[in-house]
Design brief:
This protein is of the alpha+beta class. The protein is 56% helix and 8% strand. It has a domain at 195-358: Butyryl-CoA Dehydrogenase, subunit A, domain 3 (Up-down Bundle), CATH 1.20.140.10. The protein has helices spanning 5-8, 15-31, 34-39, 47-55, 74-86, 93-106, 112-119, 193-229, 241-270, 278-300, 313-321, 329-358, and strands at residues 125-127, 136-138, 146-150, 155-159, 176-178, 184-188, 231-232, 235-236.
Protein backbone atom coordinates (compact mmCIF):
# COMPACT_ATOMS: atom_id res chain seq x y z
CA UNK A 1 0.00 0.00 0.00
CA UNK A 2 1.18 3.50 -0.80
CA UNK A 3 2.50 4.86 2.55
CA UNK A 4 1.02 8.25 1.63
CA UNK A 5 -2.42 6.86 0.83
CA UNK A 6 -4.09 7.91 4.08
CA UNK A 7 -2.50 11.35 4.00
CA UNK A 8 -3.52 11.82 0.36
CA UNK A 9 -7.14 11.71 1.49
CA UNK A 10 -6.73 13.62 4.74
CA UNK A 11 -5.71 17.27 4.80
CA UNK A 12 -6.31 17.86 8.49
CA UNK A 13 -3.54 19.77 10.24
CA UNK A 14 -0.98 18.04 12.42
CA UNK A 15 0.50 19.77 15.47
CA UNK A 16 3.22 21.58 13.52
CA UNK A 17 0.75 22.76 10.90
CA UNK A 18 -1.64 23.94 13.59
CA UNK A 19 1.11 25.96 15.24
CA UNK A 20 1.98 27.64 11.95
CA UNK A 21 -1.67 28.50 11.26
CA UNK A 22 -2.24 29.84 14.76
CA UNK A 23 0.99 31.85 14.81
CA UNK A 24 0.19 33.64 11.57
CA UNK A 25 -3.47 34.06 12.46
CA UNK A 26 -2.35 35.85 15.62
CA UNK A 27 0.28 37.85 13.76
CA UNK A 28 -1.88 39.11 10.91
CA UNK A 29 -4.88 39.56 13.18
CA UNK A 30 -2.90 41.81 15.51
CA UNK A 31 -1.11 44.01 12.98
CA UNK A 32 -3.58 44.34 10.09
CA UNK A 33 -6.73 46.45 10.44
CA UNK A 34 -9.34 47.69 7.95
CA UNK A 35 -7.78 51.14 8.23
CA UNK A 36 -4.27 49.88 7.45
CA UNK A 37 -5.61 47.95 4.46
CA UNK A 38 -7.24 51.07 3.05
CA UNK A 39 -4.18 53.23 3.75
CA UNK A 40 -2.03 50.81 1.75
CA UNK A 41 -4.28 50.97 -1.31
CA UNK A 42 -2.50 54.00 -2.79
CA UNK A 43 0.82 52.15 -3.15
CA UNK A 44 -0.41 48.57 -3.01
CA UNK A 45 1.79 47.61 -0.05
CA UNK A 46 2.11 48.29 3.66
CA UNK A 47 5.89 48.48 3.95
CA UNK A 48 5.94 48.38 7.74
CA UNK A 49 3.82 45.21 7.64
CA UNK A 50 6.14 43.77 4.99
CA UNK A 51 9.15 44.27 7.24
CA UNK A 52 7.38 42.68 10.19
CA UNK A 53 6.29 39.74 8.02
CA UNK A 54 9.90 39.30 6.88
CA UNK A 55 10.93 39.15 10.54
CA UNK A 56 8.31 36.41 10.98
CA UNK A 57 10.12 34.43 8.28
CA UNK A 58 7.62 34.56 5.43
CA UNK A 59 10.30 35.29 2.82
CA UNK A 60 12.70 32.55 3.89
CA UNK A 61 10.64 29.75 5.45
CA UNK A 62 10.21 27.80 2.20
CA UNK A 63 13.79 28.08 1.00
CA UNK A 64 16.38 25.30 1.37
CA UNK A 65 18.38 25.30 4.58
CA UNK A 66 21.64 25.87 2.70
CA UNK A 67 20.18 29.15 1.43
CA UNK A 68 19.13 30.32 4.87
CA UNK A 69 15.62 28.89 4.82
CA UNK A 70 13.61 26.45 6.93
CA UNK A 71 12.90 24.01 4.10
CA UNK A 72 9.14 24.35 4.55
CA UNK A 73 6.85 23.30 1.72
CA UNK A 74 3.90 24.66 -0.19
CA UNK A 75 1.51 23.29 2.45
CA UNK A 76 3.02 25.57 5.10
CA UNK A 77 2.98 28.51 2.69
CA UNK A 78 -0.71 27.84 1.99
CA UNK A 79 -1.47 28.11 5.70
CA UNK A 80 0.25 31.51 5.79
CA UNK A 81 -1.53 32.63 2.61
CA UNK A 82 -4.89 31.69 4.10
CA UNK A 83 -4.34 33.82 7.18
CA UNK A 84 -2.99 36.71 5.11
CA UNK A 85 -6.06 36.52 2.88
CA UNK A 86 -8.41 36.50 5.85
CA UNK A 87 -7.38 40.08 6.74
CA UNK A 88 -6.41 41.23 3.21
CA UNK A 89 -2.80 41.71 4.30
CA UNK A 90 -1.38 44.26 1.79
CA UNK A 91 1.96 42.58 1.12
CA UNK A 92 3.25 40.76 -2.02
CA UNK A 93 3.75 37.51 -0.12
CA UNK A 94 2.57 35.08 -2.80
CA UNK A 95 4.33 36.62 -5.79
CA UNK A 96 7.56 37.07 -3.84
CA UNK A 97 7.87 33.53 -2.46
CA UNK A 98 6.86 31.89 -5.75
CA UNK A 99 9.40 33.98 -7.67
CA UNK A 100 12.13 33.21 -5.13
CA UNK A 101 11.43 29.47 -5.25
CA UNK A 102 11.51 29.56 -9.04
CA UNK A 103 14.99 31.11 -8.90
CA UNK A 104 16.07 28.32 -6.57
CA UNK A 105 14.62 25.70 -8.92
CA UNK A 106 16.86 26.84 -11.78
CA UNK A 107 20.01 25.89 -9.85
CA UNK A 108 21.86 28.67 -11.66
CA UNK A 109 24.61 30.25 -9.49
CA UNK A 110 23.83 33.61 -11.10
CA UNK A 111 20.54 33.63 -9.19
CA UNK A 112 22.10 33.14 -5.73
CA UNK A 113 22.70 36.85 -4.91
CA UNK A 114 19.11 37.68 -5.85
CA UNK A 115 17.79 34.77 -3.79
CA UNK A 116 19.77 36.01 -0.78
CA UNK A 117 18.39 39.54 -1.15
CA UNK A 118 14.86 38.18 -1.55
CA UNK A 119 15.21 35.94 1.52
CA UNK A 120 15.91 38.95 3.72
CA UNK A 121 13.09 40.98 2.15
CA UNK A 122 15.63 43.60 1.08
CA UNK A 123 14.55 43.01 -2.52
CA UNK A 124 10.93 42.40 -3.49
CA UNK A 125 10.39 40.06 -6.42
CA UNK A 126 7.42 40.00 -8.77
CA UNK A 127 6.24 36.82 -10.46
CA UNK A 128 4.98 36.90 -14.04
CA UNK A 129 2.09 34.46 -14.04
CA UNK A 130 1.90 34.74 -17.84
CA UNK A 131 4.90 34.08 -20.15
CA UNK A 132 7.16 37.11 -20.52
CA UNK A 133 7.37 36.75 -24.29
CA UNK A 134 5.82 40.19 -24.71
CA UNK A 135 4.81 43.22 -22.65
CA UNK A 136 2.76 41.93 -19.72
CA UNK A 137 0.83 43.36 -16.79
CA UNK A 138 2.39 41.84 -13.65
CA UNK A 139 0.60 42.07 -10.32
CA UNK A 140 3.53 43.16 -8.08
CA UNK A 141 5.77 44.86 -10.63
CA UNK A 142 5.11 48.41 -9.38
CA UNK A 143 6.91 47.70 -6.10
CA UNK A 144 9.46 45.17 -7.39
CA UNK A 145 12.66 45.99 -9.24
CA UNK A 146 12.98 42.42 -10.55
CA UNK A 147 10.30 40.30 -12.22
CA UNK A 148 10.88 36.56 -12.52
CA UNK A 149 9.17 34.71 -15.34
CA UNK A 150 9.44 32.49 -18.40
CA UNK A 151 9.96 33.79 -21.93
CA UNK A 152 8.95 30.59 -23.71
CA UNK A 153 12.44 29.09 -23.59
CA UNK A 154 14.24 30.19 -20.41
CA UNK A 155 13.59 31.42 -16.90
CA UNK A 156 14.33 35.14 -17.03
CA UNK A 157 14.70 38.02 -14.61
CA UNK A 158 13.50 41.29 -16.11
CA UNK A 159 14.75 44.35 -14.21
CA UNK A 160 13.79 48.00 -14.41
CA UNK A 161 16.20 50.87 -13.83
CA UNK A 162 13.37 53.12 -12.63
CA UNK A 163 10.22 52.34 -10.61
CA UNK A 164 7.42 51.22 -12.91
CA UNK A 165 4.19 53.22 -13.08
CA UNK A 166 1.41 51.54 -11.16
CA UNK A 167 -1.72 50.55 -13.07
CA UNK A 168 -4.90 51.11 -11.10
CA UNK A 169 -7.06 48.04 -10.62
CA UNK A 170 -10.09 47.04 -8.58
CA UNK A 171 -8.09 44.64 -6.40
CA UNK A 172 -5.66 47.44 -5.43
CA UNK A 173 -2.68 45.31 -6.43
CA UNK A 174 0.65 47.06 -7.17
CA UNK A 175 0.39 46.07 -10.83
CA UNK A 176 2.60 47.48 -13.58
CA UNK A 177 3.57 46.75 -17.15
CA UNK A 178 6.78 44.77 -17.66
CA UNK A 179 8.40 44.98 -21.08
CA UNK A 180 11.25 42.50 -21.62
CA UNK A 181 12.19 44.22 -24.87
CA UNK A 182 12.80 47.56 -23.11
CA UNK A 183 14.28 46.39 -19.80
CA UNK A 184 17.34 44.47 -18.65
CA UNK A 185 17.13 40.68 -19.00
CA UNK A 186 19.02 37.97 -17.14
CA UNK A 187 18.57 34.49 -18.58
CA UNK A 188 19.08 31.65 -16.15
CA UNK A 189 20.30 28.19 -17.02
CA UNK A 190 17.74 25.55 -16.06
CA UNK A 191 17.68 21.84 -16.93
CA UNK A 192 13.94 22.03 -17.67
CA UNK A 193 12.66 25.59 -17.69
CA UNK A 194 9.09 24.81 -18.90
CA UNK A 195 8.55 22.30 -16.09
CA UNK A 196 10.04 24.62 -13.47
CA UNK A 197 7.77 27.42 -14.64
CA UNK A 198 4.66 25.23 -14.67
CA UNK A 199 5.50 24.18 -11.11
CA UNK A 200 5.80 27.85 -10.12
CA UNK A 201 2.45 28.55 -11.76
CA UNK A 202 0.95 25.66 -9.80
CA UNK A 203 2.36 27.07 -6.57
CA UNK A 204 0.97 30.51 -7.40
CA UNK A 205 -2.45 28.99 -8.09
CA UNK A 206 -2.47 27.02 -4.84
CA UNK A 207 -1.37 29.93 -2.66
CA UNK A 208 -3.83 32.28 -4.35
CA UNK A 209 -6.57 29.71 -3.79
CA UNK A 210 -5.68 29.51 -0.09
CA UNK A 211 -5.68 33.31 0.17
CA UNK A 212 -9.08 33.50 -1.54
CA UNK A 213 -10.49 30.90 0.84
CA UNK A 214 -9.22 32.97 3.76
CA UNK A 215 -10.62 36.14 2.15
CA UNK A 216 -14.04 34.50 1.86
CA UNK A 217 -13.98 33.42 5.49
CA UNK A 218 -12.96 36.91 6.61
CA UNK A 219 -15.73 38.53 4.60
CA UNK A 220 -18.37 36.10 5.87
CA UNK A 221 -17.32 36.77 9.47
CA UNK A 222 -18.14 40.44 8.91
CA UNK A 223 -21.49 39.59 7.38
CA UNK A 224 -22.40 37.14 10.12
CA UNK A 225 -21.51 39.62 12.85
CA UNK A 226 -23.71 42.23 11.23
CA UNK A 227 -26.71 39.87 11.15
CA UNK A 228 -26.29 39.22 14.88
CA UNK A 229 -26.34 42.89 15.85
CA UNK A 230 -29.07 44.17 13.51
CA UNK A 231 -32.73 43.34 14.02
CA UNK A 232 -35.93 43.31 12.06
CA UNK A 233 -39.36 42.97 13.66
CA UNK A 234 -37.70 42.33 17.00
CA UNK A 235 -35.44 39.45 15.94
CA UNK A 236 -31.80 39.38 14.76
CA UNK A 237 -31.42 39.27 10.99
CA UNK A 238 -29.45 36.06 11.35
CA UNK A 239 -32.60 34.27 12.56
CA UNK A 240 -34.18 34.64 9.11
CA UNK A 241 -33.74 31.68 6.78
CA UNK A 242 -33.24 33.97 3.80
CA UNK A 243 -30.19 35.41 5.57
CA UNK A 244 -28.82 32.43 7.49
CA UNK A 245 -29.00 29.86 4.68
CA UNK A 246 -26.96 31.82 2.12
CA UNK A 247 -24.33 32.57 4.78
CA UNK A 248 -24.06 28.90 5.73
CA UNK A 249 -23.88 27.86 2.08
CA UNK A 250 -21.10 30.38 1.44
CA UNK A 251 -19.27 29.20 4.56
CA UNK A 252 -19.37 25.62 3.27
CA UNK A 253 -17.85 26.88 0.04
CA UNK A 254 -15.04 28.65 1.92
CA UNK A 255 -14.24 25.53 3.95
CA UNK A 256 -14.27 23.39 0.79
CA UNK A 257 -12.03 25.86 -1.05
CA UNK A 258 -9.52 25.78 1.79
CA UNK A 259 -9.58 21.99 1.86
CA UNK A 260 -9.00 21.79 -1.90
CA UNK A 261 -6.15 24.30 -1.73
CA UNK A 262 -4.44 22.36 1.07
CA UNK A 263 -4.94 19.08 -0.79
CA UNK A 264 -3.33 20.57 -3.89
CA UNK A 265 -0.49 21.92 -1.73
CA UNK A 266 0.12 18.51 -0.20
CA UNK A 267 0.40 16.89 -3.63
CA UNK A 268 2.85 19.56 -4.81
CA UNK A 269 5.03 18.81 -1.78
CA UNK A 270 4.90 15.00 -1.93
CA UNK A 271 3.60 13.76 -5.30
CA UNK A 272 3.99 16.64 -7.76
CA UNK A 273 3.41 14.43 -10.80
CA UNK A 274 0.09 13.11 -9.50
CA UNK A 275 -3.26 14.91 -9.62
CA UNK A 276 -1.78 17.61 -11.84
CA UNK A 277 -5.17 19.27 -12.25
CA UNK A 278 -5.53 20.14 -8.56
CA UNK A 279 -3.74 23.54 -8.52
CA UNK A 280 -5.86 24.82 -11.39
CA UNK A 281 -9.02 23.36 -9.86
CA UNK A 282 -8.17 24.98 -6.52
CA UNK A 283 -7.78 28.52 -7.88
CA UNK A 284 -10.82 28.32 -10.17
CA UNK A 285 -13.05 27.00 -7.40
CA UNK A 286 -11.70 29.43 -4.80
CA UNK A 287 -12.28 32.37 -7.13
CA UNK A 288 -15.90 31.33 -7.74
CA UNK A 289 -16.44 30.79 -4.00
CA UNK A 290 -14.89 34.16 -3.12
CA UNK A 291 -16.98 36.09 -5.63
CA UNK A 292 -20.19 34.49 -4.39
CA UNK A 293 -19.24 34.58 -0.70
CA UNK A 294 -18.31 38.26 -0.66
CA UNK A 295 -21.49 39.07 -2.56
CA UNK A 296 -23.54 37.22 0.05
CA UNK A 297 -21.72 39.00 2.88
CA UNK A 298 -22.41 42.40 1.34
CA UNK A 299 -26.02 41.49 0.53
CA UNK A 300 -26.97 40.40 4.07
CA UNK A 301 -25.74 43.75 5.35
CA UNK A 302 -28.27 45.56 3.18
CA UNK A 303 -27.43 48.91 1.61
CA UNK A 304 -24.63 49.43 4.14
CA UNK A 305 -22.78 46.45 2.70
CA UNK A 306 -22.46 48.10 -0.70
CA UNK A 307 -21.07 51.45 0.40
CA UNK A 308 -17.44 52.33 -0.25
CA UNK A 309 -16.90 52.77 3.48
CA UNK A 310 -18.22 49.33 4.43
CA UNK A 311 -15.60 46.93 5.88
CA UNK A 312 -16.78 44.23 3.49
CA UNK A 313 -16.20 46.33 0.33
CA UNK A 314 -12.43 45.69 0.08
CA UNK A 315 -13.15 41.96 0.31
CA UNK A 316 -15.71 42.21 -2.47
CA UNK A 317 -13.28 44.04 -4.77
CA UNK A 318 -10.30 41.79 -4.11
CA UNK A 319 -12.37 38.64 -4.57
CA UNK A 320 -12.88 39.61 -8.18
CA UNK A 321 -9.30 40.66 -8.84
CA UNK A 322 -6.82 38.43 -7.04
CA UNK A 323 -7.13 35.29 -9.16
CA UNK A 324 -7.39 37.30 -12.37
CA UNK A 325 -3.89 38.66 -11.71
CA UNK A 326 -2.74 35.29 -13.04
CA UNK A 327 -4.52 35.78 -16.36
CA UNK A 328 -7.65 34.34 -17.90
CA UNK A 329 -9.07 31.60 -15.69
CA UNK A 330 -10.42 29.90 -18.79
CA UNK A 331 -6.88 28.68 -19.45
CA UNK A 332 -6.87 26.98 -16.04
CA UNK A 333 -10.27 25.44 -16.75
CA UNK A 334 -8.87 24.04 -20.01
CA UNK A 335 -5.90 22.65 -18.10
CA UNK A 336 -8.26 20.85 -15.71
CA UNK A 337 -10.16 19.25 -18.60
CA UNK A 338 -7.01 18.30 -20.50
CA UNK A 339 -5.45 16.73 -17.39
CA UNK A 340 -8.58 14.72 -16.68
CA UNK A 341 -8.85 13.52 -20.28
CA UNK A 342 -5.17 12.51 -20.29
CA UNK A 343 -5.65 10.55 -17.06
CA UNK A 344 -8.65 8.73 -18.47
CA UNK A 345 -6.84 7.87 -21.68
CA UNK A 346 -3.94 6.48 -19.68
CA UNK A 347 -6.32 4.42 -17.55
CA UNK A 348 -8.03 3.00 -20.65
CA UNK A 349 -4.67 2.15 -22.18
CA UNK A 350 -3.85 0.03 -19.13
CA UNK A 351 -7.17 -1.82 -19.09
CA UNK A 352 -6.15 -4.61 -21.54
CA UNK A 353 -2.95 -5.24 -19.56
CA UNK A 354 -4.90 -5.35 -16.31
CA UNK A 355 -7.31 -7.85 -17.81
CA UNK A 356 -4.42 -10.09 -18.90
CA UNK A 357 -2.81 -9.94 -15.45
CA UNK A 358 -6.16 -10.80 -13.83
CA UNK A 359 -6.26 -14.07 -15.79
Amino acid sequence: MNPYEHRRRNVSLDEDDQRIAEAFADFFGSVVSPDSVRQAEAEGIDRELWQRAVEMGVTSMALPEDLGGDDAGVFALALVAGEAGRVLAPIPFIDHVVATRLLVATGDPAAVPLIAAAATGETILAFAAQPLDARRLVSSAAIATHTVGFDGADIVVVSADEPRARVRNRAHLPSAWVDPAAERNLRLASPDAPTAYRRARDEWNVLTAAALAGLTAGSLALGAESTKTRETMGVPLGMLQGVAFPLVDAHIGAVSARSLALRAAWFLDHEPDAESHLPAAAVVYAHDVAVRGTNVSAHVQGGLGFTNEAPTTPYFLRAHGWALAGGDLRAERRHIVESELAARRAARALEPHSAVLAH
